[in-house]
Amino acid sequence: MRVRRAAALALALAGALALAGCGVPIGGVHALPRSGIPAALLPRQLPPQTTPPTTTPTGDYVAATIFWVGPDRTQLVPVQRVVPGTAPLRSALVDLTTGPLPSETGQGDTTALDPSVRLAGDPTTSGQVATVDFTSPFGQISGPEQVLAVAQVVYSVAASEGCNTGVAFEIDGTSAAIPIYNGAETFGPVYQFEYAALAPSNWSCPPTPPTTSTTTTTRPPGG
């Protein structure tokens, strides 16, 4: 029995010495330096998060003219706006559907466009014809107000694209018959001269698209 115990003790002692010789610590848990840990066992470090740079789109702004109905409702009134140069006609028509500013209504200017009228799509141009597409409330304007509303649009388009530009109207993508000043209706494009009786005083329709340059991002005073 004593021989067996002695042999077991000798075997255990030899194993411990062998482990110590291999560099494996004995006698409890020991921390290893990081340099001694295989790279495959190290936790993967993610690169620090970076915030992508944010940029604000910039572009040229140009002057545009849109038209309200004057106090006596027999004449249009031109007003100035400053719109993005990337889509000046669309921006001008959006301002037109938004309605007059308080400073403009204070001078008696109004609009024949119903407040719920909006663009149903971007205006398009082909040759010398611009097609404008409005939402269904535009088709619900009737009587003299309809003539005034059409004239406001036609003059605003002419100011942007030139007085030789015809305007075709759509309502939710469908061609719409609209009135001329003399009371007739047409599906074809209409022109500024057909509403000459409503022309503003001392205003000349540009024969060609006006040349504009970068201006400011703020509205002009009173406009």
Key words describing this protein structure:
223 residues; disordered N terminus; disordered C terminus; alpha+beta; four-stranded mixed β-sheet; single chain
Task: Describe, in plain words, how this protein is organized in 3D.
The chain is of the alpha+beta class and 223 residues long. It has a domain at 61-198. The chain is built from 4 helices and 8 strands; from the N terminus they run αββααββαββββ. The strands form 3 sheets. It has a 4-stranded mixed β-sheet. The chain has a two-stranded antiparallel sheet with strand order 1-2. Strands 7-8 form a two-stranded antiparallel sheet. The longest helix has 20 residues, at 2-21. It is globular, with a radius of gyration of 39 Å. It starts with a helix and ends in a 37-residue tail after the last strand.
